[in-house]
């Protein structure tokens, strides 16, 4: 990789550090582990920077590294950590797209990883379907199917939780 593209990569990572952290945190639900994942992802990105084809694909290329590093971490840990609202608010930037509703957060946690990844990348990280397909190494139609299935599962989960609250 030429030094210009490498400098752009460092600038991209610096400018998007909160989003990258939030993405890692959405998987591991722990501040220290999320920071470790971000650090390891940066190391992997810099070490494999020659595989970056262009500046235009930098975001999806780096997010793919973060998602894969997060999934690797979860496979190694084989455990899910629950986080209370205060901890989540403390470690996420004060922006509108943070998980504002605990019911949504619980419903998201119950989704299988491929569905959760599609939802997080599309609605919380604002990636296009084509970028998500690149991050997940899937074709566009698979990503669209997972997105619609994930939204359906979330809707069913949220509706059932609302019915339980009414009882």
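-> sequence recovered:
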């Amino acid at each position: 990789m030429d030094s210009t593209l490498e400098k752009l990569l460092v600038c991209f990572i610096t400018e998007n550090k909160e989003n990258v952290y939030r993405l890692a945190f959405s998987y591991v639900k722990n501040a220290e582990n999320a920071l470790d994942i971000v650090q390891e992802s940066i190391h992997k990105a810099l070490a494999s920077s020659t595989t970056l084809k262009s500046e235009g694909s930098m975001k999806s290329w780096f997010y793919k590294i973060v998602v894969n590093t997060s999934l690797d971490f979860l496979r190694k840990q084989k455990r899910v950590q629950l986080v209370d609202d205060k901890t989540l608010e403390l470690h996420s930037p004060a922006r509108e797209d943070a998980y504002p509703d605990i019911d949504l957060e619980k419903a998201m946690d119950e989704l299988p990883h491929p569905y959760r990844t599609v939802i997080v990348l599309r609605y919380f990280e604002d990636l296009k379907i084509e970028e998500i397909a690149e991050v997940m190494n899937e074709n566009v139609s698979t990503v669209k199917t997972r997105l619609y299935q994930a939204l359906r599962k979330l809707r069913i989960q949220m509706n059932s939780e609302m019915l339980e609250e009414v009882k």
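The chain has a mean pLDDT of 80.
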